[in-house]
Design the sequence.
């Protein structure tokens, strides 16, 4: 525990999110004064509740995704009988394993891969909140693509690509999975989470040179390493994102999380699925690639994206009469989100 605490203190990649935003508050206030409204950003994505401030239903946002990109998904409302949800899964041909996660949530909170009906029933029983149940997409790769488009234009641009490297260990033929986790510099930081995920296999001894994937959830909080893929930004990929954005009227700013097999297929609009569409609280997550960035570069990247957010939101407001949400209402939603997040953290 002492190593974990020291390592996360010395490596800015693990610092609390507040340390990436508090230093940028003066710039945010400048943009608010310029827009003459404290909640100007609420006009950026009129297709999404509050433009995607974290209080929106992920399920409703998934419904915006064109059919060819959409994973099979079922919503389990907290007051729904579990038997009804199990029926919906069969009706939609969603088999095990599958992914379950809160309908409102972020940073991987309560996101789990479930391998059986019994595990799903236990999950839904333990977490009496609205839950999204999604098919497990057995693609080789996952990435986050940040895309922005001015409402006056048909073409936008990609500002960030984050490749996701799932946490793995390499077997040596003699060490157990638990021993391999403890020996690995990154994996041992997540030993509490991994011990729970692999509770039935911790003492298994992988074969020599056998790769063991410890987590398939593409969140930093689950151990996934974020690697900058900005060198992969291309006109071809931007055309693919232009097609997507124009197919979702009212989405101009945010990050999509994508599952795919090869980047060539993704670039050419072939055989990939979109896990989520995120709005104004999206991060250009390439900034957490500590080997290719720095803390101060990360702060600058956030400001650059906020400038673009200002331009999109004010264009929507001035040219297309998209209203700004009242600052009072927006702040009220943030307090509701804070209370809700505390609630599900306690459930966890």
Sequence:
């Amino acid at each position: 525990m002492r190593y974990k605490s020291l390592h996360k203190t010395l490596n800015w990649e693990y610092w609390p999110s507040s340390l990436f935003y508090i230093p940028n508050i003066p710039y945010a206030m400048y943009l608010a004064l310029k827009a003459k409204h404290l909640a100007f950003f609420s006009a950026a994505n009129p297709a999404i509740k509050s433009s995607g401030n974290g209080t929106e239903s992920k399920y409703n946002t998934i419904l915006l995704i064109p059919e060819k990109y959409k994973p099979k998904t079922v919503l389990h409302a907290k007051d729904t009988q579990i038997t009804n949800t199990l029926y919906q899964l069969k009706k939609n041909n969603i088999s095990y394993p599958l992914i379950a996660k809160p309908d409102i949530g972020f940073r991987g909170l309560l996101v789990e891969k479930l391998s059986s009906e019994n595990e799903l029933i236990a999950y839904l029983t333990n977490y009496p909140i609205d839950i999204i149940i999604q098919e497990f997409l057995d693609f080789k790769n996952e990435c986050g693509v940040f895309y922005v488009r001015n409402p006056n234009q048909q073409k936008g641009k990609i500002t960030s690509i984050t490749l996701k490297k799932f946490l793995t260990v390499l077997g040596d033929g003699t060490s157990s999975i638990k021993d391999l986790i403890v020996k690995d510099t990154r994996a041992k930081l997540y030993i509490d989470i991994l011990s729970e995920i692999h509770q039935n296999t911790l003492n298994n001894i992988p074969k020599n040179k056998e790769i063991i994937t410890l987590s398939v959830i593409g969140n930093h909080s689950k151990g996934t390493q974020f690697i900058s893929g900005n060198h992969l930004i291309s006109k071809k990929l931007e055309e693919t994102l232009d097609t997507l954005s124009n197919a979702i009227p009212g989405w101009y700013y945010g990050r999509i999380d994508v599952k795919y097999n090869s980047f060539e297929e993704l670039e050419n609009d072939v055989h990939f699925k979109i896990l989520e569409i995120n709005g104004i609280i999206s991060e250009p997550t390439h900034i957490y690639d500590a080997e290719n960035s720095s803390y101060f570069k990360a702060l600058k990247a956030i400001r650059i994206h906020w400038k673009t957010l200002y331009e999109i939101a004010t264009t929507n407001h001035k040219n297309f009469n998209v209203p700004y949400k009242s600052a009072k209402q927006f702040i009220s939603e943030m307090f509701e989100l804070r209370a809700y997040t505390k609630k599900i953290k306690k459930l966890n």
In short: The two ends are 20 Å apart (CA to CA).
